[in-house]
Amino acid sequence: MTATPETPRVSAVIPAYDAAAHIVGAVESVLAQTLAGVEVVVVDDGSRDATAELLAGFGERIRVIRQPNGGLSNARNRGIAEARGTFVAFLDADDRWHPDKLARQLARLESDPALGFCSTRTRVEDPAGRLLNHWDCPGDEALLETLFLRNGAVPGSGSGVMVRRDLFARVGGFDESLRSLEDIDMWMRLAAVSGYACIDEPLTLVVKHPGSMSRNLAVMRAAALRVMRKNRHLLPQATRGRLWRAGYASVLADFAKWEYRAGQRGRAMLHLAQGLALAPLSRGRMLLGLLAAMGAGRTL
């Protein structure tokens, strides 16, 4: 699709559910972009708080789509369907963008037609603004294979990625049957049909809320394994078995660490043992190191 004066080059899609505490900051970070003419589409996914009233304050600077609550993937898919831009960028309601983010991503994608999506290095903070982590760009290896080995390989994920909108006609929308990791599922499908780029600057800000990981461990574990099984066929046949085993072991190691930190030490040890049974030599060493740390009671 070629942008015309009536067609914005970029549409920003923001799903929002009971987001009154954060939505103004998210929308303002889009309106502050140095890239001119960005279409802002907010999907109010059945909010029961003051989200609608706060969005109304932006007037005609944004488009608000109101719908009954359908979940995050459903709201993103509605945003894609409503968006008019050649490119779509996603932003969660409690996250923020650096003013140059969209301009930098658009320039990168327009420089190479083979690139279908682009993310940026990401700064991770707690709600008080304290730095928790940086999510870095992946290396030069094939992204699809990297996603199987490391689910967080696309930094920023649901708030960091810009996609050519016409690619959704090829890969479909976000999987509305998934309760978690629906973004990883989408990046796997996109990586199978298009190139990927990452801007190596922290242009995306993600806010992590306390306790959110431990409350959802069971849901995330089930989703991680389901996403891997669903997309296993996308891997090169020659390396499919090896990558599947290594990826499965990596997921088990991640959950063992989270479970250990959440005080679920029995489950952590079980998942480490299962990972060791699957892991190739290099990941086996990593799992053994985690096992030793747990046995010594060290912080992971």
UniProtKB/TrEMBL annotation:
Instruction: Give the residues annotated as coiled coil.
Output: none
Record flagged with keyword Protein biosynthesis: no
Describe the location of the Glycosyltransferase 2-like domain by residue ranges: 11-170
Named from the GO MF annotations, one term is: transferase activity
Q: Does the keyword Lipoprotein apply?
A: no
Name the record gives this protein: Glycosyl transferase family 2
Tell me which UniProt keywords the record has, alphabetically: Transferase
Signal peptide coordinates: none
